[in-house]
Amino acid sequence: xxxxxxxxxxxxxxxxxxxxxxxxxxxxxxxxxxxxxxxxxxxxxxxxxxxxxxxxxxxxxxxxxxxxxxxxxxxxxxxxxxxxxxxxxxxxxxxxxxxxxxxxxxxxxxxxxxxxxxxxxxxxxxxxxxxxxxxxxxxxxxxxxxxxxxxxxxxxxxxxxxxxxxxxxxxxxxxxxxxxxxxxxxxxxxxxxxxxxxxxxxxxxxxxxxxxxxxxxxxxxxxxxxxxxxxxxxxxxxxxxxxxxxxxxxxxxxxxxxxxxxxxxxxxxxxxxxxxxxxxxxxxxxxxxxxxxxxxxxxxxxxxxxxxxxxxxxxxxxxxxxxxxxxxxxxxxxxxxxxxxxxxxxxxxxxxxxxxxxxxxxxxxxxxxxxxxxxxxxxxxxxxxxxxxxxxxxxxxxxxxxxxxxxxxxxxxxxxxxxxxxxxxxxxxxxxxxxxxxxxxxxxxxxxxxxxxxxxxxxxxxxxxxxxxxxxxxxxxxxxxxxxxxxxxxxxxxxxxxxxxxxxxxxxxxxxxxxxxxxxxxxxxxxxxxxxxxxxxxxxxxxxxxxxxxxxxxxxxxxxxxxxxxxxxxxxxxxxxxxxxxxxxxxxxxxxxxxxxxxxxxxxxxxxxxxxxxxxxxxxxxxxxxxxxxxxxxxxxxxxxxxxxxxxxxxxxxxxxxxxxxxxxxxxxxxxxxxxxxxxxxxxxxxxxxxxxxxxxxxxxxxxxxxxxxxxxxxxxxxxxxxxxxxxxxxxxxxxxxxxxxxxxxxxxxxxxxxxxxxxxxxxxxxxxxxxxxxxxxxxxxxxxxxxxxxxxxxxxxxxxxxxxxxxxxxxxxxxxxxxxxxxxxxxxxxxxxxxxxxxxxxxxxxxxxxxxxxxxxxxxxxxxxxxxxxxxxxxxxxxxxxxxxxxxxxxxxxxxxxxxxxxxxxxxxxxxx
Length: 914
What we know:
It is elongated, with a radius of gyration of 45 Å. Helix content is about 45%, strand content about 15%.
């Protein structure tokens, strides 16, 4: 029956209902919340423990600046320190180091090989004796000048130990060791590897003692001779090809064939000096400080410059590169901040771990069809998106705030040294982008387990790829910056880059005793924080509306798919609804009329008349509604609903009966917006189901075929939530909930306050019925609330029997029984040997009696009413009892179940014959 509605709930009422439900649901998920919070906490604790172990080790005496007793007092300084202690001491006057040339070790120098057949290279037999020369390649437009410069690259001067630095500056001194992160103590003099005098011709080896001011001992350095070989090439492309083949990846034998350097003097002449230099940038330390590798390039520049000056002005003219030295520094304590070094990779795991949490929550509502259930009871897309987004944003902000606070409390430098406002802006932008991405990809998944697996795969994959691939690209200054930006378009790499920058600034700040990243540092050319903030902010503004658009078009659990022109739906609705409504009035009756029964035809004609009159007393009108499912796996298309025409007036209870697979659920699914009609139209309270489902949902209640419930919410909480969506408030809401629980027998014994996940199947079904009726909706759909035929007969004003996709008959229960049930059903149970006598007795009463059941002495006959008198039946039975024992007998009028069986069998038989 029709009950006055409470009106449509406004935006704030719907948002309030969803927010309260989400908070209850979140409070119940204590285990998941604890696991989510414990992960970053454990990681921070692990980093803190590692940091304390490292700090404890570095606090030992061997890493402190050395001290000694001098004239009765303790003095500390670099002069009293070992090599390990030296880095902690103040260095007001850094050591002068001879400028070195980076040369390959003897086994890596360029020689002739099978894949390296240049005839002027030395034979590879020199590798057996360790006497292979170090080779320089030269080219240019002026071959005469180029060959002249090549002959002057390596000069030889006697070594004067009284002025060692000046003496070494007149020679070419090289090393195969890699430069360090700083140049207070050059690794070339402490690594144990020999130095090389590069000379045109090796005559003898020598050694010298290098006075070092920064340690208490003098470094004894062995020096070996290495022959310098200069070779001319015809073009820069030849040199480039030769250098590439000398690198391991370009060499078929997978062996390194290295050159020292290469020069292209271009258009140089006696009045103009112009040169390009090739050098090997792979000579850098593992932490990425490639600028230190440039220290080795200085000698290459000095060599070619001196060769040009000597060509112009004679052998005595040269520029002396006497030494290189580091900047002075104050005393420092050796620090290694483990959190800063590992933050990019480890904290990427922590922050992206929120992504699968948000994604699975969205997919769960889609998989369980809870999103459409809420929408069918009046929850609009605006409140859903607003509250869901804000809900996940608040959770993420709380998560990140706890993460930063906990990390700061236990002393992780990445949090304490960097400006907190920068961290807040960076994390806030990223979590917004991450939530938007979850909304964007949620429509791709229909299963929670799949979504969770993909989410955590992205989490760990991003961390691993960031740490072992992307970080190398960031540190490699030769890698194109444009490609770095392209990779940062993936949000996970943007997060990694931001964490990397925070980690680098906190590491250097802690190492140097200064602060970490500040806002003014965002302008540094090598700082990528500003870059990723801009990228993430723009992506956030782009992804969020795209996600909303896809949700509306693709429909991630919010109903049928809609037209891509969804934002022009008002124009489409007006034009299509009016034109198709008139066309359906004309064409609707032309389908199936020949095969339909008179009552079904009469209903179709009634629908056409109502459409033309536009009656306000009709709640539901269906006009030739059809649903065809496309064929799959080689099967033909399935016609589930065949031209359904039906009108239901306000206040009427209409029952649809039919066997399994008849199309009842398909019909209801179209009416409640779960599937889209293939053709035809239907109107609920004047609104078209094809274009105006949002308006229909505000006055509709649904009890779906399968119970759609939150397992961690109680029955009472379900009803409160859906009651709020129906605009019930305050005492009216509480009263409606109490009455609903009582009406479905879920009130007594505290059943209504138990979790729905603990309910039996019947209790869940009763709760679903109560949900559909809460708030007095104008139209209620119940898909198999029970399977009781007697219930349908008592409650329904009209009944339609639906078989094989079409309506077979329609009318009131008494009309149907009178029309299809003009028979009595006679039943008798005796011993099996008297079955024939019973049948003879029935045939004597009516020649047209039909046996419809027979098993183990029990027989059931259908006897036309107009052929017998009830008194005759009683007399016949009494006579039969005198001859043998009758265990039981009965005479019953036709039931609705009998009518249903008769109509269903008749329809199926007619389909087989056709």
